[in-house]
Amino acid sequence: MHNIPTPHNEAKAGEIAKTVLMPGDPLRAKFIADNYLEDVVCFNKVRNMFGYTGTYQGKKVSVMGGGMGMPSIGIYSYELYHFYDVDNIIRIGSAGGIAENIQLRDIVIGMGASTNSSFANQYRLPGTYAPIADFELLRKAVEAADKMNIKTVVGNILSSDTFYDDNEEAMKLWSKMNVLAVEMEAAALYMNAARAGKKALCILTISDHVFTGASLSAEDRQNTFRDMMEIALEIA
Ligand SMILES: O=P(O)(O)O[C@H]1O[C@H](CO)[C@@H](O)[C@H]1O
Ligand SMILES: O=c1cc[nH]c(=O)[nH]1
């Protein structure tokens, strides 16, 4: 393997599993390692973007923070796919609901990730690219959730470059196109996966609703995030 360690990841060859769970928050990665994994080894501390490898029900799995926004997950996922031989990245994140039928605590799986980002420009495509999840991972996630009696909503999500946006109408326009929820990374992850010939999926928990202003308490957040983590671990 060439190019490792990277400026952002100090892991050595073989230290990262074929499947990586990737929350935005590195402390959520630590939470998963502490609460779900056995025989844990921390492989990255560069910029405090913690990465851990351990076993879950006997399977080797890694979990690493990806940061906030597409430039950040763009870097970490690119390096994992291209330099660390990772095959699958499953983002597990929080999101704001923007569809009427989406409520707090819902688990939304991004079949597609629309975006206002220019990440795709690098590919010089003669049209508009549609970033999509890997179907096999998507199907497995839905099946695992069904078995665990956890409701999921599958559809289009928005990966936004902005958390605070001056255009108050923007979310209403995406909502009119049946986009379910807004987060900030999936589209870049899906594009990096496609370009690398690898697999990606984004599973989200609705932590707030953009139009109603409703938001989860800290305790609620932890419990519902656990459902999402367990779906991801199940399919890892
Ligand atoms: O909870 P995470 O995974 O960080 O995801 C969401 O939360 C952050 C914004 O608060 C953005 O990264 C957004 O995508
Ligand atoms: O990106 C995000 C994440 C949670 N809630 C939002 O409104 N946006």
Automatic annotation (TrEMBL):
Pfam families: PNP_UDP_1
Enzyme Commission (EC) number: 2.4.2.1
Site entry: Important for catalytic activity: 221
SUPFAM superfamilies referenced in this protein's UniProt entry, alphabetically: Purine and uridine phosphorylases (SSF53167)
Residues that hold a purine D-ribonucleoside according to the record: 8, 183-185, 207-208
Catalytic site: 208
One Gene Ontology MF term: purine-nucleoside phosphorylase activity
Keyword Transport set for record: no
Gene3D superfamilies in alphabetical order: Nucleoside phosphorylase domain (3.40.50.1580)
Record's keyword annotation contains Oxidoreductase: no
Top enzyme category: transferase
GO cellular component, one term: cytosol
Annotated Nucleoside phosphorylase domain residues: 19-230
Catalytic reaction list: a purine D-ribonucleoside + phosphate = a purine nucleobase + alpha-D-ribose 1-phosphate; a purine 2'-deoxy-D-ribonucleoside + phosphate = a purine nucleobase + 2-deoxy-alpha-D-ribose 1-phosphate; uridine + phosphate = alpha-D-ribose 1-phosphate + uracil
Keywords, alphabetical: Glycosyltransferase, Transferase
Entries under HAMAP family matching the protein: Pur_nucleosid_phosp
Family to which this protein belongs: Belongs to the PNP/UDP phosphorylase family.
Subunit field text: Homohexamer; trimer of homodimers.
Function: Catalyzes the reversible phosphorolytic breakdown of the N-glycosidic bond in the beta-(deoxy)ribonucleoside molecules, with the formation of the corresponding free purine bases and pentose-1-phosphate.
NCBIfam families, A to Z: deoD (TIGR00107), PRK05819.1 (NF004489)
Name the UniProt record assigns to this protein: Purine nucleoside phosphorylase DeoD-type
Species classification: Bacteria, Bacillati, Bacillota, Clostridia, Lachnospirales
Gene giving rise to this polypeptide: deoD
